[in-house]
């Protein structure tokens, strides 16, 4: 322990409940020997005297007169008749004896005698004992001063001299080296000790030694260097301690230091006498705590695998133990597995689990911080939180109340990116071009939809060709080459210019009926995948007609018929217009007549054909009549093609002698009277029949019932007071094609008696509505609410606003689950909010809640695949728009800038934006149900009109769409539709100026673009630091509470202005982060664009990734390099 503090160990005793007690005071060899004998009996003779050590295990090189039989090494046994006799002509040390135990033994003492013959006065007066250490090197037995020890020998030829070893040794080979002798070397001996193998394990952390990959490989120089350092340091600390034998490294492991760094920790077997264990433990702890060592004083753990006869705690996890054999897992996987324990020792203590994971740096090989991932007996880890590369996983288990009951196991995994998948889909719509889409290619591990982040390359060849080593050469441009019949376009097999996910290729010059092979190569980071598609050029040209609107097996006469012609073939690009004709065909006599009397229009340069007045045609009651629409194209004077669309006209249900629709009773009161509406006796071959009962309110249509039932019991609203409370009911009967026949029924519905109203009728019915809502009975709740609203709307005592507000409040929890509910909810809201100068915020909120519920139901029910007809969608949407418009009028008035109350203004703005979103949803409903198929669809209401208009982008250019005095002019198509086949997404860009803390002459705009996918926006506060050639900015934090706005919503581009006193210089990177605050902090950042206003210099920093704890790479901080022109 040279160079460190030294001091005497204090006297006293240290006892534990392990059935022995160790005395620290070393007063004499006899006392030590007594202690050993009392504790672990390591003073037994090892077998020289009783021949347990065989002759073959004892050897000597030199023997007296070369007489091995009489004087050889086999005679050197204590109390033998005579012993080993050396060569007197050789120096004493050359007459050495070697004893080989074959197994490791602890040597604690040696006893010697002289030669034994009274006539021969030969004995060894001094000697050294050498032994083979754990490294296979020969060492001398040392004294407590650390120096080689010379033992005093005999003083005559027969007396036994016993020498204890001050520091016992563990060895398999002992050499007795005579130093001096009387006349000649004469020797008999016995060795004392016990079998080796007792040890305890110490976990010791090295100071300032970070764990790296090198420390996992025992053959690595750094590993060997650490093991040498550890063993030498333990020898320095414990080498002079009685009972220490040697130290052996089990392995090196990464463990977490108090500074959270991952340090090299050695698991060391410290071999010792059992009786010396407590002394060595105390000495080791003291050394770490009070002296300067290579070990971290705050970290030390112990295991005692040899203390008891049971199997100590063992931990096992099913992971590979080396990085070379580590199993691969994809980033998208969830890693989960249990820990297996083995412990036959009885213990009542609780088990404590600790799972830690370290990411291994690919460049440096260093193990990252050991992050905690659970304290249970099973391990769960979403691998998206890990980077690609290797990771170390460790499970440590401790049992409370049981010193040294600690064990761990570890393993390695390799996290890899999920594979790419390449897919080719033919989306060609004409025979002159092939359009291949790679849009279904994907990164199987990405959470982002679509092909974002993928790179594409397209290749083409004839089926009998192969791609040569010149596969990268471009083959869709001449590049000075002559055309041939090779490849797709005559320039051989190879790569096409397009790098887009959709390949469009003109095939007019490709060889007809030949098969071509297209290859798609998809790449991302270091991954790639490929797919092939075989395509044969078809020379034929064909015209087909498909139906866009009114497309059942039979055409309904109540709607218009919209058809669209399609051309397939390589000459379709020569088609400029379509000529349409309409014919009646009599299948009985095969006669054909041209029909002229219908109104018809062509759209989209004649590609679409709209027919009105279908009701003027003969319906299917005449089974011999069919109609045929023809679309004709003429390529030249001699060549023309035509497509045909035959159809039958449906007939609505017809009356019979028993047909009737009636209502019972003919008169009654609102709220109290139940009316029965029934229709029967209708006939149609296209079953099932559909019955629709409704009436018209001033705010739109109100449905009573729609479906297959021909009767309904219902309550009705108060009729028109000016017409003796008359109410017109509409009973419609339709077939499976939704062709309806209408019957009108007149009924009188009077308001409740004044006595009933005075008796609290309204309040009682409000209570009933609440009960219906709580019970989930939306039918009766909406019906009674509307009846009650029709009653209180005519109150002249000024209580209407109070009563109507109460109705809305009681209904706000309703769950809309039918179209009938939608119409009644819309009517109730419209009555409650119309013609009011001031509406309480609570009422606006209740109205908005009801309308949102109704609109969301519409969006679910009315889709392109729903059975509801277009006319019903328009009627229901009109009533819903009336209610939405009424709320919109109120909220927009509150949101005016002139409003003094900021709270009302902000709430008004919030309600207005939500209401406008409902208008958008209604428009989507109308579009999805097919209303858009016609030239122009208009749905009007008292406040909001929706116009749906569909055309090709090139035909919309500069067009003005008008309705009812309002119009909108579409800009030139080349400005907003750069590609006629692409859809255009328009985003609202909000620009705000950040308050600057200093005035300056250098102004920057910072535009931050957020992804448009669901949940891409963030509620967190965002910060950036700008790095430039001349300076680095201070952190710039965009905090919502400071700016009084919610920024970074999905699909948004937020632009901020930054004013500085001096220029930063050319920017080369930015650091962007967020604080993970708010209820939805995950953020998909697309791009940051920074521009210096004065120089007009602009820098793009492309992110295109998540900043989120649970998504992407699990990062909320990102460093972005400025993109080059090539990158952009």
TrEMBL record:
It comes from the Eukaryota. One of its GO terms (cellular component) is plasma membrane. This is Polycystic kidney disease protein 1-like 3. It holds the Pfam family F5_F8_type_C. Residues 42-194 form the F5/8 type C domain. InterPro entries: FA58C, Galactose-bd-like_sf, PKD/REJ-like, PLAT/LH2_dom, PLAT/LH2_dom_sf. Residues 1002-1121 form the PLAT domain. Keywords: Membrane, Repeat, Transmembrane, Transmembrane helix. The gene is Pkd1l3. It is found in: Membrane. Gene3D superfamilies: Galactose-binding domain-like, PLAT/LH2 domain. It comes from Stylophora pistillata (Smooth cauliflower coral). One of its GO terms (molecular function) is monoatomic cation channel activity. GO terms for biological process: calcium ion transport. Its main location: membrane. The lineage of its organism: Eukaryota, Metazoa, Cnidaria, Anthozoa, Hexacorallia.
């Amino acid at each position: 322990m040279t160079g460190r503090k030294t001091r005497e160990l204090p006297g006293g005793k240290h006892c534990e409940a392990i059935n022995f007690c160790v005395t620290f005071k070393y007063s004499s060899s006899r006392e030590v020997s007594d202690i050993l004998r009392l504790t672990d009996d390591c003073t037994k003779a090892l077998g020289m005297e009783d021949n347990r050590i065989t002759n073959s295990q004892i050897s000597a090189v030199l023997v007296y007169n070369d007489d091995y039989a009489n004087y050889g090494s086999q005679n050197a046994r204590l109390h033998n008749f005579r012993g080993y006799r050396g060569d007197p002509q050789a120096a004493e040390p050359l007459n050495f004896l070697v004893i080989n135990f074959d197994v490791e033994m602890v040597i604690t003492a040696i006893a010697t005698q002289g030669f034994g013959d009274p006539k021969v006065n030969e004995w060894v007066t001094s000697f050294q004992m050498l032994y083979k250490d754990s490294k296979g090197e020969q060492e001398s037995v040392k004294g407590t001063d650390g120096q080689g020890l010379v033992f005093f020998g005999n003083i005559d030829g027969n007396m036994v001299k016993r020498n204890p070893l001050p520091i016992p040794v563990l060895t398999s080979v002992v050499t007795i080296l005579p130093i001096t002798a009387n006349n000649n070397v004469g020797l008999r001996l016995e060795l004392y000790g016990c079998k080796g193998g007792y040890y305890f394990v110490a976990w010791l952390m090295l100071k300032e030694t970070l764990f790296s990959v090198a420390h996992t490989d025992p053959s690595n120089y750094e590993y060997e260097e650490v093991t040498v350092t550890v063993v030498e340091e333990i020898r320095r600390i414990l080498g002079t301690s009685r009972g220490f034998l040697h130290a052996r490294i089990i392995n090196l492991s990464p463990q977490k230091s108090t500074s959270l760094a991952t340090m090299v920790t050695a698991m060391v077997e410290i071999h010792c006498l059992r009786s010396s264990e407590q002394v060595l433990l105390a000495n080791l702890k003291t050394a770490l705590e009070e002296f300067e060592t290579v070990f971290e004083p705050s970290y030390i753990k112990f295991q005692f695998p040899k203390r008891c006869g049971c199997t100590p705690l063992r931990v096992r996890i099913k992971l590979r133990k080396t990085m070379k054999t580590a199993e691969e897992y994809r980033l998208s996987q969830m890693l989960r597995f249990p820990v297996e324990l083995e412990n036959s020792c009885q213990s009542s203590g609780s088990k404590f689990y600790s799972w830690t994971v370290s990411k291994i740096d690919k460049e440096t090989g260093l193990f990252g911080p050991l992050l905690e991932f659970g304290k249970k007996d099973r391990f769960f880890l979403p691998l998206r939180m890990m980077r690609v590369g290797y990771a170390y996983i460790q499970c440590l288990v401790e049992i409370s109340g049981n010193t040294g009951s600690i064990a761990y196991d570890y393993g390695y995994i390799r996290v890899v990116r999920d594979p790419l998948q390449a897919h080719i889909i033919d989306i060609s719509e004409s025979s002159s071009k092939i359009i291949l889409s790679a849009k279904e290619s994907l990164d199987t591990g990405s959470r982002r939809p679509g092909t974002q982040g993928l790179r594409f390359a397209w290749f083409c060849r004839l089926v009998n060709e192969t791609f040569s080593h010149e596969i990268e050469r471009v083959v869709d441009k001449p590049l000075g080459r002559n055309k041939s019949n090779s490849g797709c376009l005559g320039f051989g097999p190879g790569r096409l210019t397009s790098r887009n996910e959709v390949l469009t290729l003109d095939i007019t010059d490709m060889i007809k009926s030949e098969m071509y092979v297209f290859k798609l190569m998809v790449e991302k980071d270091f991954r790639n995948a490929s797919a092939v598609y075989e395509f044969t050029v078809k020379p034929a040209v064909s015209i087909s007609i498909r139906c866009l609107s009114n497309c059942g097996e039979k055409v309904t006469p109540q709607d218009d018929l919209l058809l669209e012609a399609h051309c397939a073939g390589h000459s379709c690009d020569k088609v400029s217009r379509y000529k349409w004709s309409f014919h009646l065909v009599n299948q009985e006599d095969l006669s054909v007549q041209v029909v002229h009397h219908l109104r018809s229009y062509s759209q989209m340069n004649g590609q679409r054909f709209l027919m009105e007045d279908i009701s003027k045609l003969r319906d299917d009651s005449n089974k011999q009549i069919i109609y045929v629409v023809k679309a004709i194209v003429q390529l030249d004077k001699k060549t023309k093609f035509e497509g045909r669309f035959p159809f039958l006209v449906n007939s609505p249900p017809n009356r019979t002698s028993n047909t009737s629709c009636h209502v019972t009773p003919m008169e009654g009161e609102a709220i109290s009277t139940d009316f029965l509406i029934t229709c029967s006796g209708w006939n149609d071959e296209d079953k099932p029949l559909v019955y629709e009962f409704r009436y018209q309110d001033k705010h739109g249509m109100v449905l009573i019932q729609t479906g297959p039932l021909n009767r309904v019991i219902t309550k009705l609203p108060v009729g028109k007071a000016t017409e003796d409370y008359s109410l017109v009911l509409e009973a419609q009967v339709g077939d499976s094609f939704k062709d309806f026949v209408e019957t009108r029924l007149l009924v009188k519905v009077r308001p409740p008696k004044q006595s009933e109203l005075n008796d609290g009728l309204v309040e009682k019915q409000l209570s009933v509505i609440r009960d219906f809502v709580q019970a989930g009975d939306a039918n009766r709740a909406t019906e009674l609410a509307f009846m009650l609203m029709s009653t209180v709307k005519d109150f002249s005592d000024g209580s209407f606003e109070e009563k109507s507000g109460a109705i809305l409040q009681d209904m706000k929890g309703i769950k809309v689950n039918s179209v009938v509910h939608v119409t009644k909810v819309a009517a109730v809201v419209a009555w409650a909010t119309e013609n009011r100068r001031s509406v309480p915020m609570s009422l606006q909120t209740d109205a908005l809640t009801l309308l949102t519920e109704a609109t969301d139901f519409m969006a679910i029910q009315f889709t392109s695949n729903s059975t509801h007809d277009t006319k019903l969608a328009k009627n229901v949407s009109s009533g819903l728009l009336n209610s939405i418009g009424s709320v919109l009028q109120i909220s927009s008035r509150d949101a005016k800038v002139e409003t003094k109350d900021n709270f009302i203004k902000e709430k008004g703005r919030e309600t207005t934006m939500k209401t406008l979103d409902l208008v958008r949803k209604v428009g989507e409903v109308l579009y999805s149900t097919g209303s858009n198929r016609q030239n122009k669809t208009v749905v009007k209401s008292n406040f909001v009109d929706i116009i749906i208009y569909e055309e090709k982008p090139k035909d919309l250019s500069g067009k003005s769409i008008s309705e009812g005095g309002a119009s909108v002019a579409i800009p030139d198509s080349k400005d907003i539709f750069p590609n006629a086949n692409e859809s255009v997404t328009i985003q609202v860009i909000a620009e705000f100026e950040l308050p600057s803390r200093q005035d300056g002459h250098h102004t920057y705009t910072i535009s931050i673009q957020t992804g448009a996918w669901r949940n891409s926006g963030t509620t967190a506060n965002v910060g950036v630091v700008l790095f430039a050639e001349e300076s680095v900015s201070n952190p710039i934090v965009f905090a919502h509470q400071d700016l009084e706005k919610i920024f970074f919503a999905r699909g948004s581009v937020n632009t901020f202005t930054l004013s500085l006193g001096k220029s930063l210089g050319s920017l080369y990177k930015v650091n962007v982060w967020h604080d993970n605050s708010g209820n939805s902090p995950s953020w998909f950042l697309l791009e940051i664009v920074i521009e210096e206003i004065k120089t007009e210099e602009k820098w793009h920093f492309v992110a295109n990734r998540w900043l989120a704890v649970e998504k992407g790479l699990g990062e909320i901080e990102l460093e972005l390099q400025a993109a080059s022109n090539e990158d952009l």
